[in-house]
Amino acid sequence: MPYLIDSDVLIDVSRGKPAAREYIDALPEGWAISQISALELIVGARDNRDLADIDTFLSAYVIVLLRGSTGSRAYELLKRYAKSHGLHVFDSLVAAIAIEEGLTLVTKNRKHFGMIEGLNFEVPQY
User: Fold this and answer.
1) What is the pLDDT of residue 1?
2) 20 contacts 13 by C-beta, under 8 angstroms
C-alpha cells in the first residue's frame, strides 16, 4: 500500500467527480484510507441515504486502523505544529498514520500538511 488517500480526495471521488476518480484509478494498486478519514466521511454524510452510500463506498477499500504508536506520533505532531501552524487533531492523526505506515498521503490540503517533517505527501493535480 504505497498511498493513503485523505478525506478531501475521497469526498471528490464519492461525489462522482470524474477527474478525482481518474486520478485514484491511475494510482498503483493497494492504496488505503485511514480510519480517521473514514470517520470524517461518516460525519459529513448529509442524510441516511448518503450515509449508506458512504458505508458502501468505504467497504470496498482497505482501512488503516489506529494503533498505539499512531496516537503517540499524533501527540508529538500536535505539540510541534498546533500552535505554530494550526494543525488540527484529525489531521495530526492522518499524518501520523501515513508516517507510521510509510505511506504517501494524497491530499489537496498542502496548508495543513506541508510543514510536517517526515511526511511524504502528494497533491493531486485534477
Assistant:
1) 58
2) yes
Tell me: domain 3-122, CATH 3.30.470.10, correct?
no
Please report, for the chain, the start and end positions of each structural domain, with discontinuous segments joined by +: 3-122
Q: Which residues contact 107 (CB under 8 A, 6 or more apart)?
A: 6, 8, 9, 113, 121, 122, 123
Rounded Cα distance between 94 and 73, Å, is: 10
3-class DSSP assignment, residue 33: strand
- Per residue in 38-64, pLDDT (tens digit) is 999 899 889 999 899 888 988 888 899
- d(CA 82, CA 58) in angstroms, rounded, equals 29
* Torsion on CA atoms 123, 55, 25, 100, rounded to nearest 10: 50
pLDDT in the model for residue 87? 96
pLDDT digits (tens, 9 = 90+) for 86-102: 999 999 999 999 999 99
